[in-house]
């Protein structure tokens, strides 16, 4: 079949296999004829029989055409290639043919020489993503019972399967809708392969040095040689398995990587290149690394600390041997945070400074940390964001096992730094902060803040709850602490007063106190010489207390940063507000992290996926197009969302006829967008219960110059909310929630999530807005139906996750009543789009 649709370049990607190696996947082309025939020529008789259900040693032109001449719309075919350019070898091919609405038959053909490397799983993941993009929600496959490898590919994918045996052939039907199990399986496979691909960087056995005439890396080379490391110069012939340490002029870097790749190097750190690099040069460097099967850190990297504690940074004296993992981008951020880590008494387990992060990014680093677990905190400093959706799912997985802190610099998400190949968002960092919260990550805005959190988490652990114990030296201090704790939503569970004027032993009481608490704050202040001497004795007594929960200290009258205890240093803060803020953020984050474990994705069985996709595909073009009210209502109905019926009117008589048809009571809504939902400005006439009320409202609209308006069924009393979703160039499918009116429009009291949502996400997005108190029984009013509102948000999230071509959807107002929700208004805009990440396992594309 001749192709009639544009070539789907968005399906091209570099992928990481089960063994950590990389290949390229792309849609097939007719010119792949020779590569496909070569693949077939190397197959065993059994592999050919499993694929064609008959012996077929020779392929006819028609056979080849069935695989390669596809329209990449109803019929799709993707192929994997190893190597680059003219030397690229096709290692596997897979495709699907649409058999009926929403259903396609899928099959794979993987080279015998590649079995065991996970090519079938990679092909399946990418075909499933392409299928969902095209409105296919079910695969069917026909497999010989002896073909266990292919059967296992389907079983291991995590989707819901239905199998049957007919005439000696197994028919497998695969539901492609996202499930919690499919998401878990995909995350695990992605983590395994990408972490393995980082092994050459993070656990090198030997090194090769390529330093230009400035000898920037000479101190690093001297340290390595002094430690006995296996380090050679690039002039050596055999370099297989060595990590390359590179400082070379940027224009020469692509050629250097080509040469090193040919000699067996599979990972490189590029320290040079701090100047601005144009996009064309950056892409050439990235293509060179990918073509050589090499992972690249930099350019402009500050270096790394390997998993065994080897310091490969430019500066000397990085504290290692600790439990803190650190990822940074710029060298400036690395220097600043490393200085703070030293002065805080912390030490690193690993560090990755990515520089311009052309290849290795924070996502890769987190995958490595997840595969090499630690209970200590993980720190991520973000100057830019690449694949935000992938970041969210990796961070969520990482945060289930350890504290994760992120330092968000100004402009992240909205500004592009020189030398960085990233998308941006008009939403800026505000959406990112909510995504971090959704992922269980604690966001910080300053190095001091993230280091304060790290000190407590690394040296004391994280509070399991919000019960606070206080050890204080005065009633006034205790009163202030109690008020501050309440403000931070901490509950004072126990209190111990120490009299510094007549100090008595308190260790036994302190040990008993902490058994009633999740964290302890020691707040002691000396105001005279007697108390200062007693303070020193109190500090000595703290030495004998065994820590069972996290402790922090605010001790006035001493200049020491830390008070040592038998179980490690006790973090000291200059003021109680900062100390309580740190404990509160850690304890609340720990509660959110606990909700990530066993979280279930939202799912409904009553969706009409094929109908929804057909409607959107027919309307979406290269420009934004607004769906009609009828089309919007039809689309929403496919996802179980009903709009209150409305009829347009222009006169009193038309208004009366509409009201009689809909049934009383009704509302009249202005046709002007600025007034349409503003009853306070006269744009909405509510609760019109009889013909005279309708006539009077219509006359008011006419007197004000209204040309048209809507007559709509009246929803039960409740709170008006706004639920929106849109396709963002950086974040992907974004969902937002707010209460309607000034809370949204002026105060920007809005919460955000990115799809897919879990059941907990659909409730937390509601609870995060400050005005949500109005839904919970505000001022003696009955509580409203938050469960029904959460279900509505979940359904909107599925619609947006499934349909990238829905550019924006806004439900306003959504009336939340005591029982149920009613959607009184909806606007939907569509536009042809290609989402950058749809649960496909892929490296950053060198064609970006």
TrEMBL record:
GO terms for molecular function: acyltransferase activity, transferring groups other than amino-acyl groups; ATP binding; metal ion binding. The keyword Translocase does not apply. Keywords: ATP-binding, Nucleotide-binding. It comes from the Bacteria. Gene3D superfamilies: 3.40.630.30, ATP-grasp fold, A domain (3.30.1490.20), ATP-grasp fold, B domain (3.30.470.20), NAD(P)-binding Rossmann-like Domain (3.40.50.720), Succinyl-CoA synthetase domains (3.40.50.261). It comes from Bowdeniella nasicola. Residues 633-832 form the ATP-grasp domain. This is Acyl-CoA synthetase (NDP forming). Residues 23-177 form the N-acetyltransferase domain.
């Amino acid at each position: 079949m001749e192709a009639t649709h544009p070539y789907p370049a968005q399906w091209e990607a570099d992928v990481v296999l089960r063994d950590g190696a990389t290949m390229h996947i792309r849609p097939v082309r007719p010119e792949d004829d020779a590569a496909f025939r070569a693949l077939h020529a190397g197959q065993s008789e059994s592999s050919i029989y499993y694929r064609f259900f008959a012996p077929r040693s020779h392929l006819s032109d028609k056979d080849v055409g069935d695989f390669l001449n596809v329209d990449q719309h109803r019929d799709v075919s993707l192929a994997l290639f190893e190597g680059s350019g003219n030397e690229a070898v096709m290692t596997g091919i897979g495709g699907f043919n649409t058999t009926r609405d929403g259903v396609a038959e899928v099959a794979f053909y993987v080279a015998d020489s590649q079995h065991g490397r996970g090519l079938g799983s990679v092909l399946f993941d990418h075909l499933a993503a392409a299928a969902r993009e095209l409105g296919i929600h079910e695969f069917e496959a026909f497999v010989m019972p002896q073909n266990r490898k292919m059967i296992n590919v389907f079983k291991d994918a995590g989707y819901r399967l239905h199998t049957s045996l007919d005439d000696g052939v197994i028919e497998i039907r695969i539901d492609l809708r996202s499930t919690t199990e499919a998401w878990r399986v995909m995350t695990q496979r992605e983590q395994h392969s990408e972490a393995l691909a980082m092994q050459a960087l993070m656990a090198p056995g030997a090194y090769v040095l390529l330093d230009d005439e400035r000898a920037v890396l000479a101190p690093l080379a001297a340290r390595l040689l002094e430690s006995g490391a296996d380090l050679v110069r690039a002039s050596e012939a055999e370099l297989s398995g060595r990590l390359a340490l590179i400082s070379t002029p940027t224009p020469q870097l692509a050629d250097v990587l080509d040469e090193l790749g040919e000699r067996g190097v599979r990972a490189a750190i590029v320290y040079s290149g701090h100047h601005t690099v144009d996009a064309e040069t950056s892409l050439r460097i990235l293509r060179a690394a990918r073509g050589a099967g090499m992972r690249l850190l930099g350019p402009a990297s500050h270096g790394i600390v390997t998993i065994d504690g080897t310091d490969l940074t430019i500066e000397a004296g990085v504290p290692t041997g600790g439990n803190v993992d650190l990822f940074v981008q710029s060298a400036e951020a690395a220097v600043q945070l490393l200085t703070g880590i030293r002065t805080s008494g912390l030490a690193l387990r690993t560090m990755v400074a990515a520089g311009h992060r052309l290849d290795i990014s924070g996502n890769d680093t987190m995958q490595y940390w997840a595969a090499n677990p630690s209970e200590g905190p993980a720190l991520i400093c973000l100057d830019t964001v690449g694949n935000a959706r992938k970041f969210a799912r990796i961070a969520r997985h990482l945060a289930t096992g350890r504290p994760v802190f992120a330092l968000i610099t100004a402009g992240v998400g909205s500004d592009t730094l020189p030398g960085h190949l990233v998308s941006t968002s008009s939403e800026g960092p505000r959406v990112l902060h909510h995504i971090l919260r959704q992922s269980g990550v604690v966001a910080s805005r300053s190095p001091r803040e993230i280091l304060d959190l790290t000190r407590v988490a690394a040296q004391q652990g994280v509070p399991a709850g919000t019960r606070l114990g206080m050890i204080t030296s005065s009633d006034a201090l205790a009163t202030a602490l109690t008020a501050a704790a309440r403000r931070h939503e901490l509950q004072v569970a126990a209190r111990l007063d120490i009299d510094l004027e007549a100090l008595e032993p308190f260790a036994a009481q302190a040990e008993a106190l902490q058994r009633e608490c999740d964290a302890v704050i020691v707040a002691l202040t000396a105001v005279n010489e007697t108390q200062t001497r007693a303070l020193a004795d109190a500090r000595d007594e703290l030495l004998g207390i065994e820590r069972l929960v996290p402790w922090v200290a605010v001790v006035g009258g001493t200049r020491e940063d830390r008070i040592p205890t038998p179980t490690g240093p006790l973090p000291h803060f200059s003021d109680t507000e900062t100390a309580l803020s740190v404990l509160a953020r850690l304890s609340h984050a720990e509660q959110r992290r606990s909700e990530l474990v066993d979280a279930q994705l939202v799912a409904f069985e009553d969706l009409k996926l094929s109908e929804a996709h057909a409607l959107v595909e027919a309307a979406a073009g290269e420009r934004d197009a607004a769906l009609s009210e009828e089309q919007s209502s039809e689309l929403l109905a496919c996802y179980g969302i009903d709009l209150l019926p409305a009829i347009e009117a222009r006169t009193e008589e038309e208004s009366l006829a509409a009201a009689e048809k809909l049934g009383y009571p009704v509302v009249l809504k202005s046709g002007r967008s600025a007034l349409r939902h503003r009853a306070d400005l006269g744009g909405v006439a509510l609760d019109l219960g009889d013909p005279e009320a309708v006539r009077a409202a219509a006359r008011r609209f006419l007197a004000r110059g209204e040309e048209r308006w809507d007559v709509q069924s009246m929803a039960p009393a409740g709170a008006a909310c706004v639920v929106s979703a849109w396709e963002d160039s950086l974040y992907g499918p974004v969902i937002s929630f707010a209460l309607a009116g000034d809370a949204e429009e002026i105060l920007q009291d809005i919460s955000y999530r990115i799809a897919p949502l879990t059941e907990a996400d659909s409730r937390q997005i509601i609870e995060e807005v400050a005005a949500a108190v109005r839904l919970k029984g505000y001022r003696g009013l009955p509580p409203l139906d938050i469960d029904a509102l959460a279900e509505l948000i979940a359904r909107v999230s599925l619609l947006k996750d499934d349909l990238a071509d829905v550019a924006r959807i806004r439900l306003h107002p959504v009336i939340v009543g005591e029982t149920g929700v009613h959607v009184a208004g909806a606007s939907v805009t569509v536009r042809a789009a290609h989402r950058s990440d749809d649960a496909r396992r892929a490296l950053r594309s060198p064609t970006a």
